[in-house]
């Protein structure tokens, strides 16, 4: 077996999400190569070379500057075919979820999304994946010779570099699909934040609809103090109290930090689906019946507008 | 503009805590069914793109809804017709005989016959949570895609500007039609969809529209045809098979703390996380 890991880049560097796909490859226990796609990929290729991959395959071209699935999929499919890869893995980020199905269709491959585990029994792979908003786990077998998977960052811990330097090889850029000429990248309005990314944070302070317009005013000081990322429920995002990219849940980001604060969040199943794997969950809610208390390790029934400032004062005491 | 919207019936996720898993299978008997919420958002988006928001009774184009399912799923189609869709297609099939790839292949055959300008799909179904049909279909058709749309600005029948909700922010693209767009939650906010037919100052009510009783009656007369899966996708082989299901591991019951002080003390000495 031979695995192709698709790297995810940001500003020419390897995104840490890539490390989860590498962990997947290591868990399967088969040789793997990493495909770096973009324009100006030198740093990313160097980063990728430290994980013990057989090869770092680099597709670097001006036409690949922006991450568009219509441009990237032909590259991945060509590399997967030429290298005889059996499994193509990407992290289940918005980038991976956008790209992987197009690659699967090109390769005639089955695609298991958002997997949270893998079993390798003598070369036969079974993928564990959450369904029904995390209320059931399915064991999926992909029937096709080539298999596509996207792996959950929250369930595959970031791989550490293993030293050494894998050889770097340039790949030829295939002709673009006709579809690529019918999509134009306009802009990426990247959220500017000094805080850690939700997928990488050790601590997350998440807020719900209850915070209203005071979302940032109340949560930011706590997040700053803890060096935490800020998350939000859908209701808080929909109401405009928090930007959409902060949404945690079934259809937002899936996270599993060491410590997760759910503040003024009721605990609907769609929210739980995105944070239930957190190591420690703290809930602050004034309603003692709120479903969030069913998953919280520590529940505090109190008005958040008094509890959060008190919490900050208490933490500052050291 | 002619818009095709795939629509799936799912077990109501808010009943999901009642999902039973017996003998390695998900047992959905006794659960309530409803349209996949993301697909409902797609229907709403299609309606907004093909009407003048100030006079939504008249359609400026056509909206076709299509589902894969047994006879009962016609209820889901009728509900979409009642909110304003023009016609419906049901592909006769059982859930267990389908996977995302087969649905995408069968949809391709329907698209080739219907020739819509746009396929608007939900970004995922909340039962399988697979998030792949729209993208697969786009590739099979050789069309561009814009996934996870939070905003759509129509430039007419030629192109759309789509604000895609990605992990790090919003990624704006222009797609030239025909194209596949998959929609995210916030596409049904009051000003998320702008069409050339609606005055730019128009604000929609938040969320999806409800059908009036009259419309529900009228929807019974709207065209609904049945197609056979085997005619659309002669190779019905599934690419994914499930060998079993299991419930998630239960989290051990936590404790309630009385004060902020107690919480901090427990986080420090018991959980050792701060
Ligand atoms: C298709 C679909 C997908 C979805 N995806 C997601 C998702 O990814 N993520 C997500 O989060 N949701 C998602 N949802 C929405 C989800 O079902 C809930 O509606 C949402 O999580 C509720 O957010 P909330 O808990 O902030 O708001 P509410 O349900 O309004 O709860 C607010 C809570 O705050 C408490 N409260 C109020 N005032 C105070 C106070 N002063 N002090 C302390 N507590 C207070 C209340 O007791 C209540 O428990 C999805 C829904 C659908 C249909």
Automatic annotation (TrEMBL), chain A:
Record's keyword annotation contains Flavoprotein: no
Any Pfam family hit: ETF_alpha
InterPro entries named in the record: DHS-like_NAD/FAD-binding_dom (IPR029035), ETF_a/b_N (IPR014730), ETF_a/FixB (IPR001308), ETF_alpha_N (IPR033947), ETF_asu_C (IPR014731), Rossmann-like_a/b/a_fold (IPR014729)
Entry coiled-coil feature ranges: none
Keywords, ordered alphabetically: Electron transport, Transport
Electron transfer flavoprotein alpha/beta-subunit N-terminal domain sequence ranges: 3-189
Domain of life (superkingdom): Bacteria
Family from the record: Belongs to the ETF alpha-subunit/FixB family.
Name of the molecule in the record: Electron transfer flavoprotein subunit alpha/FixB family protein
Natural source organism: Pendulispora albinea
Automatic annotation (TrEMBL), chain B:
Keyword Oxidoreductase: no
CDD domains assigned: ETF_beta
SMART domains named in the record: ETF
Gene3D superfamilies in alphabetical order: HUPs
Keywords attached to this entry: Electron transport, Transport
Cross-referenced SUPFAM superfamilies: Adenine nucleotide alpha hydrolases-like
Chain ranges of the Electron transfer flavoprotein alpha/beta-subunit N-terminal domain: 23-236
Keyword Translocase: no
Superkingdom: Bacteria
Family indicated by similarity: Belongs to the ETF beta-subunit/FixA family.
Name assigned to this protein: Electron transfer flavoprotein subunit beta
Organism encoding this protein: Pendulispora albinea
């Amino acid at each position: 077996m031979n695995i192709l890991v698709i790297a995810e880049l940001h500003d020419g560097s390897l995104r840490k999400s890539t490390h989860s796909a590498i962990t997947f490859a290591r868990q399967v226990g088969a040789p793997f190569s990493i495909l770096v796609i973009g324009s100006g990929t030198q740093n990313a290729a160097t980063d990728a070379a430290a994980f013990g991959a057989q090869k770092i395959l680099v597709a670097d071209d001006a036409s690949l500057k922006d991450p568009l699935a219509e441009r990237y999929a032909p590259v991945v499919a060509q590399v997967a075919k030429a290298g005889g890869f059996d499994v193509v893995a990407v992290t289940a980020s918005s980038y991976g979820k956008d790209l992987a199905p197009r690659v699967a269709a090109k390769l005639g491959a089955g695609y298991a999304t958002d997997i949270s585990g893998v079993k390798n029994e003598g070369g036969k792979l079974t993928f564990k994946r959450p369904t029904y908003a995390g209320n059931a786990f399915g064991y999926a077998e992909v029937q096709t010779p080539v298999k596509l998977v996207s792996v959950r960052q929250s369930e595959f811990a970031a791989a550490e570099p293993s030293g050494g330097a894998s050889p770097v090889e340039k790949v030829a850029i295939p002709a673009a699909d006709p579809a690529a000429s019918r999509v134009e990248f306009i802009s990426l309005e990247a959220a500017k934040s000094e805080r850690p990314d939700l997928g990488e944070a050790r601590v997350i302070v998440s807020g719900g609809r209850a915070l209203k317009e005071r979302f940032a005013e109340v949560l930011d000081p706590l997040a700053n103090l803890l060096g935490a990322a800020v998350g939000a429920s859908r209701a808080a995002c929909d109401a405009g109290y928090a930007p959409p990219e902060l949404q945690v849940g079934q259809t937002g980001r899936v996270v599993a930090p060491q410590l997760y604060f759910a503040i003024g969040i009721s605990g609907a199943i769609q929210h739980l689906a995105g944070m239930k794997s957190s190591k420690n969950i703290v809930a602050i809610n004034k309603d003692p019946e709120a479903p969030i208390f069913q998953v919280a390790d520590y529940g505090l029934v109190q008005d958040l507008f008094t509890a959060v400032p008190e919490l900050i004062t208490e933490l500052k005491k050291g | 503009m002619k818009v095709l919207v795939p629509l799936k019936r799912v077990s109501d996720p808010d009943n999901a805590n009642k999902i039973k898993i017996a003998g390695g299978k998900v047992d959905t008997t006794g659960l309530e069914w409803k349209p996949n919420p993301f697909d409902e958002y797609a229907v709403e988006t299609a309606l907004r793109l093909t009407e003048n928001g100030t006079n939504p009774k008249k359609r400026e184009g056509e909206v076709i809804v299509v589902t894969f399912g047994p006879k009962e799923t016609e209820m889901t189609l009728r509900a979409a017709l009642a909110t304003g869709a023009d016609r419906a297609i049901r592909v006769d099939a059982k859930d267990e005989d389908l996977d995302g790839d087969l649905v995408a292949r069968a949809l391709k055959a329907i698209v080739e016959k219907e020739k819509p300008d746009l396929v608007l799909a939900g970004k995922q179904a909340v039962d399988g949570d697979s998030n792949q049909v729209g993208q697969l279909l786009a590739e099979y058709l050789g069309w561009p895609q814009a996934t996870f749309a939070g905003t759509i600005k129509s430039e007419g029948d030629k192109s759309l500007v789509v604000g895609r909700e990605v992990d790090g922010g919003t990624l704006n693209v222009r797609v030239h039609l025909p194209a596949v767009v998959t929609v995210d939650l916030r596409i049904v906010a009051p000003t998320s969809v702008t069409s050339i037919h609606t005055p730019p100052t128009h604000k929609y009510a938040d969320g999806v529209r409800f059908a009036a009783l009259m419309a529900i009656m009228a929807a019974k007369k709207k065209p609904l045809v049945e197609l056979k899966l085997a005619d659309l996708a002669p190779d019905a082989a599934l690419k994914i098979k499930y060998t079993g299901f299991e419930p998630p591991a239960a989290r051990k019951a936590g404790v309630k703390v009385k004060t902020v002080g107690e919480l901090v003390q427990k986080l420090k000495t018991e959980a050792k996380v701060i």
